[in-house]
Every structure is written in structure tokens, then in C-alpha cells.
Write a structure and sequence with these properties.
Elements lengths: L4 H14 L6 E2 L2 E3 L4 E4 L14 E10 L6 E6 L5 H14 L11 H11 L12 H6 L3 E4 L7 E10 L4 E7 L2 E2 L10 E8 L2 E9 L7 E7 L7 E2 L4 E6 L2 E8 L8 E8 L13 E3 L11 E7 L4 E7 L6 E9 L7 E6 L3 E4 L7 E10 L11 E4 L10 E7 L4 E6 L5 E9 L7 E2 L4 E2 L7 E6 L7 E10 L11 E4 L9 E8 L2 E7 L3 H4 L2 E8 L5 E2 L11 E4 L8 E8 L12 E2 L10 E7 L6 E6 L7 E7 L6 E7 L4 E4 L8 E8 L12 E3 L5
Parallel strand pairs: 1-8
Antiparallel strand pairs: 2-3, 3-6, 4-5, 4-7, 7-8, 7-9, 10-11, 11-15, 12-13, 12-16, 14-15, 16-17, 18-19, 19-22, 20-21, 20-23, 23-24, 25-26, 26-30, 27-28, 27-29, 27-31, 31-32, 33-34, 34-37, 35-36, 35-38, 38-39, 40-41, 41-44, 42-43, 42-45, 45-46
Length: 669
């Protein structure tokens, strides 16, 4: 079992420096994310600053089966700032643990080291992998093959090339595993725009220190490593792994896995359960299309469906009944987009609906109900002489039945011309006393302005006819519902307003637009009704500093207005976003820090530039016009690390959140 380097390295180094010649094989090599990592536990040495006769080192390697050693490379402790800086840049790419925000930089560490050219005062800084690698205290072999077990030898070299002290590592292989139990998903939570996930596992031996976190941004999207904050906590005999991710988008599906590894990213043994999470409205998961078609030859019903967000769907549950209202039972759970129901009886009408389970554990409301019927006879004859008239009780629908095998009838209604017909009655059974003439009175209130009716017949084989002729009646007194304003958009020569109205095409004759400027009163601004098929209006108005607000009404066929919609003003629905991709560079003469950024996806009046150093508050150092995409800071503090961020001031006066920060480290003089 692997042990923490933080625990074993000081002991090994102390033991070696006390009695170097007594050591033969030491636990100084470990498998990791980019290869095998080997500790150089000798004191620092270089030609400029030797350790006695020692001026450098050599790293050798052999497989456990071989008897001869292969030299990988020679090296020494960095003797100059530039050498250490160069080593550090290379080390960043090979280190498993590197956080630019918390990492020590070379400008901080070099002055401490060069006072005595030893590691006595760098115990904290050298726990960071890139820094240990920059000082050649931690070596890496990126050419190691995964299936091979190696040993490494670190040798002290004199100026004449002869050897002094040496030690050999214990065997190490990429197949050495960090033994842990598989983390099982135990919870997930969305707070605002932050995803919080939790895994749990039984503790087996040593508590893991490090996780390899991976994220996929979709179902068929490859997983990539995610450098994010996480915690590992022991509770009793269990390990709790908690991960937070703030860099997420709404209505996107994310998948996460964690793998406990050693401190170098090696020893991956088990991958956790995959946790899927997304911030999505469950209404998007209800099928947008759900159809049923019967095949009388094969005596089967084929169901088809589709979704607005198909990537979020896990399981589709199909329910069926022989009655419309109740009696539904689950007949199939599937991950597909269709199902053939072969367990049916010809002549029996079947009703279906769907219930969906999504990938994050939600269960949706049921879908609409549909029906299908496997037919073994021809359709029933259409009802004839269909008419509609008005009475005090309601609209009276009349029809004549000319068929001899009718079982009953259904009356359908639509709230618009050529609109979808929906049933408004249960079966009206054939009655011999009616002598083939039937009526039904629709007593429903608050109907649309123009209402259509049709009648469907069903024969004794439970086969329905097509719709009869659709007959229409005007309802002049229908009061329209109020529309809803949903957005406002300012343009150069005016303002666009947008609304939605669920009943516009069937009830409304048009719309009236009302405007208020400043603290004035609302006034209607359209001379003629805005057509009912429209959902936007452009107000040509000279923009100034005064606030402009709108509300609208819908108007029915009799010219009666609805109640007012909600109100929207020009200061609403205009988000202000911070600049993107903020970067920083030193000028060629090192006398200024150059900032560059990209404009946000919102209107910009100006930019505010902020700077701070550790331990002090941020200060606004510049205000730039809306066209600026760069800034030169010549007043930065050259003796400290300088951190920068920007804010956007929108055209509406709102100020954005701070942008992502950038920073420049102090330069060594």
C-alpha cells in the first residue's frame, strides 16, 4: 500500500543523510499521472555551489529483471534564477498538483534559497510539486511503460565524473494500485448556479489524499480532467468525498467521476459511480410529440414520441388502460423512442400515456393521453346534416345518423378556425327514440370568439368515423385574457416590445399598446389594432435619459379590451455582463503591465479597471470608454504580485459582477 510522501520523505531523507552508505533500497519512487516520480534525497549540489566534492547527480533506470542500468539523464541543483525559472515552467506540465492561485512563485523562493543554497528554509514551499521538481528534488520519468516494473538509482557525481554516494529505489510500476473501495454516489444538490455532489465509500486502510476528478459536458462527450475544489472527510468507518462545481451552464447535462489516487496522480484503482446533474425545468422533459397508430393487419399499436431535451431522458414508462379516466397500468419501461404494443384485442380501444424518469432522478408529470384501436371493419359512416345554433342554455349541435351499425357519437370542439378538435363529450349512445336525429347543448362558458364543432360516430366494432363537417358559431362577447409582456429590446431608432398570448389566434381581434414616459400617465400609442397573429411591436421613439414603460391589452371581436398585462420598462431585462478572457502581460521593457480582454455580450457604456496586492483592498485605477479592449498599467507595484479584474458599466447604468482575475508576479531584479 502506498504511503503519503509528506509522511515518509522527511524520515527517508533524515535517515539517508545520517548514514548514506547504509542505504541500499529506499521507498523513493512512485507511479503518477505523467509517469514515475523519483525523489532526489541528496543535499543540493552544483558546479557553482558544490556539496563537498559533489557537483551534480545522475538518474539511472532498469527493469526489475535487468542487471545493467541505463542512464536517463544528468542534472544538478539550479544555481541561478533563470535556471530555476526554466525548470519551473517545465515542471508545471508534469506535476499532478498545481494551483496557480496558491502556488509559490520563483521570485518568492529564490531569494530564500540563494542565501545559503540549501533547503533548510524551504520545507513548506517544497511540498508543492512544481517547486520540488524545479529544484530537481523531485524527478520524473515520462518514458516509463505502464506494464513494466522499474527501479531507479540516484548517484552523486564529482567534478571528474566519478561517483560518490548512491541509493536505489524500491521497484515501482504504473500497475501499483492505491487500494480503496469504489466511491458510491450518495447525493447531489443544486444551489443557485453551484453543483454539489457527494460520494461515499467504506474506508480501507489509509485515507486518500488526492482525487482525479473528471467531467463530461453531455451524454456522448468525452470526460476531461477538472481542476476544482473538493474535500475528503472520514466519518466513522466511511470516507465522504464532496465536489463543488461553479463553472456550469443552465439546461446542460454534466457527468462527474472521481478516482482516489496517490499524491502524484498514480495508482488509480477504481472509478466512482457517475453522477449526472443539470439545472433543467422538468416541463422540458415531458414528450413534445406523442402519437399512436394501429395496424389492423398485424393487430398491433405503434407508439412514437420525441423530447425537447432528449439527452436528459433516462427511462420512458408506458401506461395503458381500456378506459380514458382510470385503470392505467405500466406495460413497458424503455430507453427508446417508440414501442409496439402487440398484446391487444381487436376492436378494443386502448388509451396510453407516458411518465419519464430523467438522468438526475426526477419523475415528470404524465404526458397527454392518446388512444388507438386495431380495426377489423371499415370506419363508421359520417354523421350528416351537422348544424349549430344558439340558445339561452348554450350552443346547440344537431346531426343525423344515416348508418345502421352506429354505437354512439362524440362531439368535438375547437376554439379557432381549422384548429385542433378536442372531445367535449363522453359517448352519446344511439337511442331508438331519437329516430336518427340527435342534439347536444354545449353549456361551457368563456369560450373563444369563434367556435367550431364536429361529430364523430363509432360503430359496433368500436371503429370511429372521420370528423363530420365542421360547423362554426360566433361568440362576440368572449372576454379575452390578458397577454404577458416578456421582453424589451432597445435599438437605435426605437424600442421593440415582445409578448405572448395563448388565446390570440382564436379570441383576440388585436392588441392595444400603452406607453408611459417618466412619471407621466399611460397613453395608447397604436392608431389601429395590432394584428392578433403578431407578438411584437416597434415603438419609434427618440431615446433619452427618461424611463419608458409599457403595458398592453388584447381586444375581442366586439372591441372590448382585456385587463392590462404586466408592466415592463427599458431598465428591465437588460443584464450587464463582465468582460471575458482577461489576460495580462509584461511589456518588453518590464515597465508596464498590459491587460487585454474581450467585450461582453451586453451593451457597454464603460469599463472599470481594478488592481490589488495581497493583504490590501482592490482599488479602481482606470475608467475606459466602451470601445477599449486593452489597458497599460504603468503604476503597478514592481515589488509585489499584482492582481487585476474589470467591471462593465452598462448603457442602463448597471454594473456587472467582477470579471475573472488575472495577475502578474513580481520580477527578480
Amino acid at each position: 500500500m502506498m504511503r503519503s510522501l509528506k509522511k515518509i520523505l522527511p524520515a527517508v531523507v533524515s535517515l539517508f543523510w545520517l548514514n548514506a552508505n547504509a542505504l541500499k533500497e529506499v521507498p523513493a519512487a512512485f507511479n503518477g499521472y505523467k509517469g514515475n516520480y523519483i525523489y532526489n534525497i541528496f543535499k543540493p549540489a552544483s558546479v557553482a555551489h558544490p556539496d563537498g566534492e559533489v557537483v551534480g547527480f545522475r538518474l539511472d533506470r532498469k527493469t526489475v529483471q535487468e542487471t545493467t542500468w541505463q542512464t536517463l539523464y544528468k542534472f544538478s541543483t539550479p544555481a541561478t534564477f533563470n535556471e530555476l525559472q526554466s525548470n519551473y515552467q517545465k515542471a508545471i506540465n508534469n506535476a499532478f498538483e498545481h494551483n496557480p492561485i496558491t502556488a509559490y512563485n520563483i521570485a518568492e523562493v529564490w531569494p530564500i534559497f540563494k542565501m545559503k543554497f540549501n533547503f533548510d528554509s524551504l520545507s513548506v514551499q517544497l511540498t508543492q510539486q512544481p517547486m520540488a521538481m524545479a529544484f530537481n528534488l523531485l524527478l520524473v520519468d515520462t518514458t516509463a511503460k505502464r506494464e513494466v516494473s522499474y527501479q531507479y538509482r540516484v548517484i552523486q557525481l564529482k567534478a571528474d565524473g566519478t561517483e560518490m554516494g548512491k541509493y536505489t529505489s524500491l521497484p515501482v510500476s504504473a500497475n501499483d494500485k492505491f487500494i480503496v473501495n469504489k466511491p458510491k454516489k450518495s447525493g447531489r444538490k443544486i444551489t443557485g448556479e453551484v453543483f454539489r455532489m457527494e460520494w461515499k465509500a467504506k474506508l480501507s486502510g489509509e485515507l486518500p489524499e488526492v482525487l482525479l476528478v473528471k467531467r463530461s459536458e453531455g451524454i456522448n462527450i468525452p470526460f476531461k480532467r477538472l481542476l476544482n475544489s473538493y474535500s475528503i472527510e472520514q466519518k466513522g468507518d466511511s470516507v465522504i468525498y464532496t465536489l463543488e462545481d461553479q463553472n456550469v451552464s443552465k439546461e446542460a447535462l454534466y457527468q462527474y467521476t472521481i478516482t482516489p489516487v496517490n499524491r502524484f496522480g498514480g495508482g488509480a484503482n477504481v472509478v466512482s459511480d457517475t453522477i449526472q446533474i443539470a439545472a433543467v425545468d422538468s416541463q422540458f422533459l415531458i414528450p413534445k410529440i406523442f402519437t399512436a397508430s394501429a395496424d389492423s393487419i398485424k393487430n398491433a399499436v405503434t407508439l412514437n414520441w420525441s423530447f425537447i431535451k432528449p439527452d436528459f431522458i433516462s427511462v420512458v414508462n408506458i401506461f395503458r388502460s381500456t378506459a380514458y379516466e382510470d385503470g392505467y397500468k405500466l406495460i413497458k419501461s424503455t430507453t427508446g423512442y417508440n414501442y409496439i404494443d402487440r398484446d391487444i384485442i381487436a376492436g378494443q380501444k386502448y388509451y396510453y400515456y407516458l411518465v419519464v424518469n430523467d438522468r438526475i432522478g426526477q419523475t415528470t408529470e404524465r404526458s397527454v393521453k392518446i388512444y388507438a384501436l386495431s380495426q377489423k371493419s371499415t370506419k363508421s359512416e359520417l354523421p350528416s346534416q351537422v348544424t349549430v345554433s344558439k340558445s339561452k342554455e348554450g350552443n346547440v349541435i344537431s346531426w343525423r345518423d344515416n348508418a345502421v351499425d352506429s354505437r354512439g357519437f362524440y362531439v368535438y370542439r375547437t376554439n379557432e378556425v381549422a384548429g385542433a378538435l378536442k372531445p367535449i363529450t363522453e359517448m352519446i349512445y344511439v337511442d331508438a327514440k331519437a329516430k336518427q336525429n340527435y342534439t347536444y347543448t354545449d353549456t361551457a362558458t368563456n369560450l373563444s370568439g369563434k367556435i367550431g364543432y364536429a361529430v364523430v360516430a363509432e360503430n359496433l366494432s368500436n371503429v370511429r368515423s372521420n370528423f363530420s363537417t365542421i360547423v362554426y358559431v360566433e361568440n362576440q362577447n368572449t372576454i379575452t385574457s390578458q397577454p404577458t409582456l416578456i421582453d424589451i429590446n432597445k435599438v437605435n431608432d426605437g424600442i421593440f416590445i415582445f409578448w405572448k398570448d395563448e388565446t390570440a389566434s382564436s379570441v383576440a381581434a388585436g392588441y392595444n399598446i400603452y406607453r408611459k414616459v417618466g412619471t407621466g400617465a399611460y397613453a395608447k400609442i397604436n392608431r389601429t389594432l395590432v394584428l392578433p397573429l403578431k407578438n411584437s411591436y416597434k415603438d419609434v421613439i427618440q431615446l433619452n435619459d427618461m424611463a419608458v414603460e409599457y403595458k398592453i391589452t388584447s381586444v375581442n371581436l366586439s372591441g372590448v379590451e382585456s385587463s392590462f398585462s404586466n408592466e415592463l420598462g427599458t431598465n428591465q431585462f437588460e443584464m450587464v455582463y463582465p468582460p471575458a478572457n482577461l489576460k495580462s502581460f509584461y511589456s518588453a521593457d518590464l515597465k508596464s503591465v498590459m491587460l487585454q480582454w474581450q467585450a461582453p455580450q451586453s451593451s457597454v457604456a464603460s469599463y472599470e479597471v481594478y488592481r490589488y496586492v495581497r493583504g490590501k483592498d482592490a482599488v479602481k485605477i482606470a475608467t475606459l470608454n466602451h470601445s477599449a479592449l486593452s489597458f497599460n498599467d504603468t503604476s503597478f507595484d514592481a515589488t509585489q504580485n499584482n492582481y487585476y479584474y474589470l467591471k462593465t458599466v452598462g448603457a442602463n447604468g448597471k454594473v456587472s459582477l467582477p470579471s475573472k482575475e488575472t495577475y502578474k508576479v513580481v520580477r527578480d531584479k
